[in-house]
Amino acid sequence: MDQIPGQLLVDNLEEFRDNLEEQRMHMGFKYLIKNITKKIVEKLGGASALTVDHIADLGVLRKGLDKDDIKDLQPEVQEELAVYGDDLDEEGAKELFDDEDASKRRKRATTDYSSKDADYFLDMGQIILGLPEEGVTTITNEVFEDIVGTVSEISGWSSGQLTKWAEKAISVWGAANTFTSDELLRLNNFAKGFTASQLNSMDFSSNDVIASFGLVSGYTAEQSNNIFAKIKTNTAVSNLTGSDWLRLGRIALGMTTGDIGNINADAFKVAVSEFGKMTGWSESQLDALKDKAVAVYGPTTGWDGALLSTVNVIIGGFTDSEVENLNAEDLQYISNEAIASMPPSKFKLLSSELIGQLDAEQAQSVTDTQIQELSEEQKSALASAESEDTTTPNATSTTTISPGGNGSTKSIFGIASILLPLLCARFI
Known about the structure:
Layout: H1 6-11, H2 13-21, H3 29-43, H4 52-58, H5 67-72, H6 75-83, H7 90-98, H8 102-109, H9 118-122, H10 133-138, H11 141-151, H12 159-173, H13 181-185, H14 196-201, H15 207-214, H16 221-231, H17 242-248, H18 257-261, H19 265-277, H20 283-297, H21 305-311, H22 320-324, H23 328-331, H24 336-341, H25 344-347, H26 352-355, H27 360-364, H28 368-372, H29 376-386, E1 400-401, E2 408-409, H30 415-426
Helix pairs in contact: 15-17, 17-19, 19-20
């Protein structure tokens, strides 16, 4: 990245930006964006030199602005960036809320949020993530009613903010066990602000409410355990249908290993692909899910590629011998998420030869915790796999495994494939 001329990026910003738009879901996108934006901002004279037009032109690269960049922006440029607040990551949105000139900062310290109407909060978009915890408390009940269903859909709230939003809901609607279905449906991410016992007291008799809570990610284990415990008081686990399990979504992470064993076979066949997509399972849950899959589909030695793709992260529950029996042909059916979800004690059982046959994205998904358990030979094989690009012939990638196996520096994916047309044009 250091060898790429900054002026080249600036001169071809529009084309380069559009290429990056297509890479949003690629492994390493966030890391790449941060580095490219830093390069461009430096070439433009630093964040303090950025203009309103620059902010508009950056497009997806706005995600690469860090806290120091936002702090150094001129006031009018910060205002322009606020228009694109939803393009920022969570830290950037919070920083934009906080980092203004001294007079605005003094003004905010005495801001009376009880005097603000619904539009004031709704117009902030994601920047509302910077709202002080005490500010939530002073929002009027009427405004809370008007905004809760919208602002609760925003992710990135701190645990302290979530707690305050939950307390505000209780102050407006009453005790958690009295919330109506309509009120529960408006909680979205704010559900995470309630205690486990409060969640357990809520009314989950509505399928719509269950589905809404199931879409929320980030519950603590205790929270998901208590929500699921309440739901199964209405319907025994063995009686839950495939549709019921699909509706539960992330709440399923609250199952005990006993619950997993009690899922009926037909329902498991419907839900297993969704279970396989979810991350956050404990090792004991993965073991139980794999055992359930064996009970339904037979021994793992008979699983074909389609089934491996379906169970996905559940391969993290494979026994030592099952992991050791994986072969190169199986790798094409194992997702990046499944690789990253394998317990380090299991991943290290893969042979150096097999690790070396991971494709670049699979290798890049290996976590630092997993790497710490590898031998030097396995780390060398992983480094070789990471530097391979099996999708774009002209793409290049470099990876460094740190001495002692204490982590890895992830590669910048396919950078040459994005820059090649621009680099070539420079010399025509």
